[in-house]
Amino acid sequence: MTDEPKPPRPPSLKSETRQTNWRRTNLPKYQAHLAVQRALMSGALEKRGCEVCGAAKVDAHHDRYDEPLNVRWLCRSHHVKLHHYGEDMFPIGRQQAD
């Protein structure tokens, strides 16, 4: 028996709610969100202030979902603006997990 950590199980998406349907349709995005949640709980990733205004209450924004722990911390207002107006809205350098 090895002491290697088990890879995360794929999410169980059995219901037919709107949220579950989004997760099923956008599985790479959902898995990236789950990876951030796990990393935050384990301490492998730490929230930082909004990279635009410094607000403490932030969302994790993925520029690339194939790099799930490479996130930009943005307050909800700046996160919504970034999605609405495009990735070039806040060209501040991305912060990576250590």
What does this 3D model show about the protein?
- By secondary structure, the chain is mostly helical.
- The chain has a domain at 18-85.
- It has 3 helices and 2 strands.
- The chain has helices at residues 18-25, 27-42, 76-85; strands at 59-62, 71-74.
- The chain has a two-stranded antiparallel ribbon with strand order 1-2.
- The protein starts with 17 loop residues before the first helix and ends in a 13-residue tail after the last helix.
- The model is unreliable at 94-98 (pLDDT under 50).
- Residues 1-24 are annotated as: Disordered.
What ranges have pLDDT less than 50 throughout 5 or more consecutive residues?
A: 94-98
Across the major sheet, the strand order is 1-2
Kindly report the average pLDDT value. Answer: 82
Cα separation of the termini: 30 Å
Sketch the topology as an H/E string, one letter per element. Answer: HHEEH
Task: Report the strand count.
Answer: 2
What class, by secondary structure content? Answer: mainly alpha
Major beta sheet summary:
2 strands, antiparallel
Assign an overall shape: globular
Helical fraction equals 25-40%
What is the count of DSSP helices, taking H or I runs of 4+ residues?
A: 3
Radius of gyration: 15 Å
Strand content: 5-15%
Region (Disordered): 1-24
